[in-house]
Amino acid sequence: MSGGKGGSAKGSGGRGGLHVRVKTAKKRSVSSTRWLQRQLNDPYVRRAQAEGYRSRAAYKLIEIDEKFGLLKKARAVVDLGITPGGWSQVVRKANPRARVAGIDLLACEPIEGVEILEMDFMDDAAPDALIEALGSAPDLVISDMAANTVGHPQTDHLRTIGLAETAADFAVRNLLPGGAFVAKVFAGGADRELLTLLKRHFSTVKHAKPPASRKGSPELYVIAQGFKGQHKDREAEAE
Protein backbone atom coordinates (compact mmCIF):
# COMPACT_ATOMS: atom_id res chain seq x y z
CA MET A 1 0.00 0.00 0.00
CA SER A 2 1.24 3.51 -0.40
CA GLY A 3 -1.50 5.75 0.87
CA GLY A 4 -2.77 6.47 -2.61
CA LYS A 5 -0.12 4.30 -4.25
CA GLY A 6 2.64 6.83 -4.46
CA GLY A 7 4.95 4.03 -5.47
CA SER A 8 7.05 1.73 -3.36
CA ALA A 9 9.35 3.48 -0.92
CA LYS A 10 11.84 0.82 -1.89
CA GLY A 11 12.11 2.28 -5.36
CA SER A 12 11.96 6.01 -4.68
CA GLY A 13 13.83 5.96 -1.39
CA GLY A 14 17.19 5.63 -3.09
CA ARG A 15 20.39 7.37 -2.10
CA GLY A 16 20.27 9.89 -4.91
CA GLY A 17 21.30 13.50 -4.48
CA LEU A 18 24.25 15.18 -2.80
CA HIS A 19 25.60 13.91 0.50
CA VAL A 20 25.27 16.57 3.19
CA ARG A 21 28.07 16.93 5.71
CA VAL A 22 27.40 18.60 9.05
CA LYS A 23 30.07 20.54 10.90
CA THR A 24 30.34 19.89 14.62
CA ALA A 25 29.11 22.96 16.48
CA LYS A 26 30.60 23.96 19.83
CA LYS A 27 27.40 23.24 21.74
CA ARG A 28 26.50 20.09 19.80
CA SER A 29 27.80 16.67 20.81
CA VAL A 30 29.42 14.31 18.33
CA SER A 31 26.44 11.93 18.60
CA SER A 32 24.01 14.79 17.92
CA THR A 33 26.04 15.81 14.88
CA ARG A 34 25.97 12.22 13.59
CA TRP A 35 22.17 12.06 14.11
CA LEU A 36 21.66 15.36 12.28
CA GLN A 37 23.87 14.26 9.39
CA ARG A 38 21.96 10.97 9.14
CA GLN A 39 18.64 12.84 9.08
CA LEU A 40 19.78 15.27 6.41
CA ASN A 41 21.00 12.42 4.20
CA ASP A 42 18.08 10.06 4.80
CA PRO A 43 15.96 9.70 1.63
CA TYR A 44 12.93 8.67 3.70
CA VAL A 45 13.16 11.85 5.76
CA ARG A 46 13.27 13.93 2.59
CA ARG A 47 10.39 11.97 1.08
CA ALA A 48 8.27 12.36 4.23
CA GLN A 49 8.81 16.11 4.14
CA ALA A 50 7.88 16.25 0.46
CA GLU A 51 4.75 14.08 0.81
CA GLY A 52 3.44 15.60 4.03
CA TYR A 53 4.04 12.73 6.44
CA ARG A 54 5.07 13.62 9.96
CA SER A 55 7.85 11.05 10.17
CA ARG A 56 9.86 8.64 8.06
CA ALA A 57 8.18 5.84 10.03
CA ALA A 58 5.13 6.29 7.80
CA TYR A 59 6.96 4.39 5.05
CA LYS A 60 7.44 1.38 7.31
CA LEU A 61 3.67 0.92 7.46
CA ILE A 62 3.33 1.73 3.75
CA GLU A 63 5.85 -1.02 2.90
CA ILE A 64 4.30 -3.50 5.34
CA ASP A 65 0.91 -2.87 3.76
CA GLU A 66 2.28 -3.30 0.24
CA LYS A 67 3.33 -6.81 1.27
CA PHE A 68 0.41 -7.84 3.51
CA GLY A 69 -2.58 -5.79 2.29
CA LEU A 70 -3.91 -4.60 5.64
CA LEU A 71 -5.35 -1.14 5.18
CA LYS A 72 -7.84 -1.12 2.29
CA LYS A 73 -10.20 -3.51 4.06
CA ALA A 74 -9.82 -2.00 7.54
CA ARG A 75 -12.88 -0.19 8.89
CA ALA A 76 -11.88 0.51 12.52
CA VAL A 77 -8.23 0.95 13.45
CA VAL A 78 -6.42 1.43 16.77
CA ASP A 79 -2.99 3.09 16.58
CA LEU A 80 -0.92 2.41 19.70
CA GLY A 81 1.91 4.88 20.21
CA ILE A 82 0.43 7.27 17.68
CA THR A 83 2.77 10.26 18.13
CA PRO A 84 3.81 11.99 15.91
CA GLY A 85 1.01 10.56 13.78
CA GLY A 86 2.65 9.18 10.65
CA TRP A 87 1.00 5.76 10.83
CA SER A 88 -2.49 7.20 11.26
CA GLN A 89 -1.82 9.53 8.33
CA VAL A 90 -1.01 6.47 6.21
CA VAL A 91 -4.21 4.69 7.33
CA ARG A 92 -6.38 7.71 6.53
CA LYS A 93 -4.74 8.25 3.14
CA ALA A 94 -5.10 4.60 2.17
CA ASN A 95 -8.65 4.29 3.48
CA PRO A 96 -10.43 7.61 4.16
CA ARG A 97 -13.54 5.75 5.38
CA ALA A 98 -11.66 4.02 8.19
CA ARG A 99 -12.32 5.21 11.71
CA VAL A 100 -9.10 5.60 13.71
CA ALA A 101 -8.37 6.04 17.41
CA GLY A 102 -4.82 6.50 18.66
CA ILE A 103 -3.13 6.76 22.03
CA ASP A 104 0.20 8.07 23.24
CA LEU A 105 1.73 9.40 26.43
CA LEU A 106 3.15 12.25 24.34
CA ALA A 107 1.01 14.94 22.74
CA CYS A 108 0.07 14.46 19.08
CA GLU A 109 -1.11 17.21 16.75
CA PRO A 110 -4.68 16.63 15.50
CA ILE A 111 -5.25 14.48 12.41
CA GLU A 112 -8.49 14.72 10.47
CA GLY A 113 -10.69 11.70 11.13
CA VAL A 114 -8.59 10.44 14.05
CA GLU A 115 -9.55 10.43 17.72
CA ILE A 116 -6.41 10.95 19.80
CA LEU A 117 -6.03 10.08 23.49
CA GLU A 118 -3.10 11.60 25.37
CA MET A 119 -2.63 8.98 28.05
CA ASP A 120 -0.46 6.01 28.97
CA PHE A 121 -1.50 2.85 27.14
CA MET A 122 -0.38 0.90 30.22
CA ASP A 123 -3.08 2.69 32.26
CA ASP A 124 -5.84 0.24 33.23
CA ALA A 125 -8.43 2.65 31.82
CA ALA A 126 -6.76 2.92 28.40
CA PRO A 127 -8.31 -0.10 26.60
CA ASP A 128 -11.90 0.89 27.36
CA ALA A 129 -11.15 4.53 26.53
CA LEU A 130 -9.79 3.50 23.13
CA ILE A 131 -12.81 1.38 22.27
CA GLU A 132 -15.12 4.20 23.34
CA ALA A 133 -13.18 6.70 21.21
CA LEU A 134 -13.27 4.36 18.22
CA GLY A 135 -16.96 3.63 18.63
CA SER A 136 -16.67 -0.10 18.02
CA ALA A 137 -14.33 -3.05 18.23
CA PRO A 138 -11.33 -2.67 15.86
CA ASP A 139 -10.53 -4.89 12.91
CA LEU A 140 -6.91 -3.70 12.85
CA VAL A 141 -4.54 -2.87 15.72
CA ILE A 142 -1.20 -1.30 14.81
CA SER A 143 1.60 -0.54 17.24
CA ASP A 144 4.86 1.27 16.62
CA MET A 145 5.50 1.56 20.36
CA ALA A 146 9.04 1.17 21.63
CA ALA A 147 10.38 1.71 25.12
CA ASN A 148 12.83 4.55 25.68
CA THR A 149 16.25 3.02 25.10
CA VAL A 150 18.81 2.86 27.90
CA GLY A 151 21.72 1.81 25.69
CA HIS A 152 21.75 -1.81 26.85
CA PRO A 153 20.51 -3.90 23.89
CA GLN A 154 19.09 -6.78 25.92
CA THR A 155 17.23 -4.45 28.30
CA ASP A 156 15.91 -2.32 25.44
CA HIS A 157 14.73 -5.47 23.67
CA LEU A 158 12.92 -6.86 26.71
CA ARG A 159 11.17 -3.57 27.44
CA THR A 160 9.93 -3.22 23.86
CA ILE A 161 8.79 -6.85 23.78
CA GLY A 162 6.84 -6.12 26.96
CA LEU A 163 4.99 -3.33 25.16
CA ALA A 164 4.34 -5.57 22.17
CA GLU A 165 2.92 -8.28 24.45
CA THR A 166 0.59 -5.74 26.07
CA ALA A 167 -0.49 -4.55 22.63
CA ALA A 168 -1.11 -8.16 21.54
CA ASP A 169 -3.18 -8.81 24.64
CA PHE A 170 -5.30 -5.75 23.80
CA ALA A 171 -5.72 -7.04 20.24
CA VAL A 172 -6.75 -10.53 21.36
CA ARG A 173 -9.31 -9.09 23.77
CA ASN A 174 -10.82 -6.60 21.36
CA LEU A 175 -10.31 -7.47 17.68
CA LEU A 176 -13.19 -8.50 15.47
CA PRO A 177 -12.93 -12.00 13.94
CA GLY A 178 -10.72 -11.90 10.84
CA GLY A 179 -8.86 -8.85 12.13
CA ALA A 180 -5.13 -8.16 12.03
CA PHE A 181 -2.35 -6.97 14.34
CA VAL A 182 0.99 -5.27 13.59
CA ALA A 183 3.60 -4.45 16.22
CA LYS A 184 7.23 -3.43 16.51
CA VAL A 185 9.57 -5.93 18.16
CA PHE A 186 13.35 -6.09 18.41
CA ALA A 187 15.46 -8.95 17.12
CA GLY A 188 16.87 -10.92 20.02
CA GLY A 189 14.90 -14.09 20.54
CA ALA A 190 12.87 -13.04 23.59
CA ASP A 191 9.53 -12.88 21.80
CA ARG A 192 8.66 -16.58 22.16
CA GLU A 193 5.67 -15.93 24.46
CA LEU A 194 4.40 -13.22 22.13
CA LEU A 195 4.60 -15.52 19.10
CA THR A 196 2.93 -18.36 20.99
CA LEU A 197 0.03 -16.07 21.89
CA LEU A 198 -0.33 -14.78 18.35
CA LYS A 199 -0.10 -18.20 16.70
CA ARG A 200 -2.87 -19.45 18.97
CA HIS A 201 -5.22 -16.64 18.00
CA PHE A 202 -4.34 -15.81 14.37
CA SER A 203 -4.26 -17.84 11.17
CA THR A 204 -0.87 -16.48 10.04
CA VAL A 205 1.99 -14.84 11.95
CA LYS A 206 5.06 -13.48 10.16
CA HIS A 207 8.01 -11.18 10.76
CA ALA A 208 9.04 -8.42 8.36
CA LYS A 209 11.75 -5.78 8.21
CA PRO A 210 10.52 -3.10 5.80
CA PRO A 211 13.16 -1.33 3.69
CA ALA A 212 12.43 1.94 5.53
CA SER A 213 13.71 0.35 8.74
CA ARG A 214 17.34 1.40 9.02
CA LYS A 215 19.81 -1.39 8.31
CA GLY A 216 21.59 -0.97 11.63
CA SER A 217 18.38 -1.06 13.64
CA PRO A 218 17.37 -4.27 15.46
CA GLU A 219 13.67 -3.53 14.95
CA LEU A 220 11.37 -5.98 13.22
CA TYR A 221 7.61 -6.02 12.85
CA VAL A 222 5.33 -8.93 13.61
CA ILE A 223 2.25 -9.17 11.40
CA ALA A 224 -0.62 -11.40 12.53
CA GLN A 225 -3.63 -11.87 10.26
CA GLY A 226 -6.89 -13.78 10.41
CA PHE A 227 -7.93 -13.33 14.04
CA LYS A 228 -9.85 -16.42 15.09
CA GLY A 229 -12.02 -14.72 17.69
CA GLN A 230 -11.74 -14.70 21.43
CA HIS A 231 -10.10 -17.71 23.02
CA LYS A 232 -12.37 -19.73 25.31
CA ASP A 233 -10.42 -18.75 28.40
CA ARG A 234 -10.92 -15.06 27.52
CA GLU A 235 -14.65 -15.60 27.11
CA ALA A 236 -14.84 -17.41 30.44
CA GLU A 237 -12.91 -14.59 32.07
CA ALA A 238 -15.39 -12.04 30.73
CA GLU A 239 -18.45 -13.90 32.06
UniProtKB/TrEMBL annotation:
Keywords: Cytoplasm, Methyltransferase, rRNA processing, S-adenosyl-L-methionine, Transferase. The active site is at K184. The keyword Ribosomal protein does not apply. Gene3D superfamilies: Vaccinia Virus protein VP39 (3.40.50.150). GO terms for molecular function: rRNA (uridine-2'-O-)-methyltransferase activity. It is found in: Cytoplasm. It catalyses: uridine(2552) in 23S rRNA + S-adenosyl-L-methionine = 2'-O-methyluridine(2552) in 23S rRNA + S-adenosyl-L-homocysteine + H(+). Its main location: cytoplasm. Residues 1-17 have a biased composition (Gly residues). GO terms for cellular component: cytoplasm. The keyword Protein biosynthesis does not apply. S-adenosyl-L-methionine binds at G85, W87, D104, D120, D144. SUPFAM superfamilies: S-adenosyl-L-methionine-dependent methyltransferases. Residues 53-227 form the Ribosomal RNA methyltransferase FtsJ domain. Specifically methylates the uridine in position 2552 of 23S rRNA at the 2'-O position of the ribose in the fully assembled 50S ribosomal subunit. Belongs to the class I-like SAM-binding methyltransferase superfamily. RNA methyltransferase RlmE family. PANTHER family: RIBOSOMAL RNA METHYLTRANSFERASE (PTHR10920), RRNA METHYLTRANSFERASE 2, MITOCHONDRIAL (PTHR10920:SF18). This is Ribosomal RNA large subunit methyltransferase E.
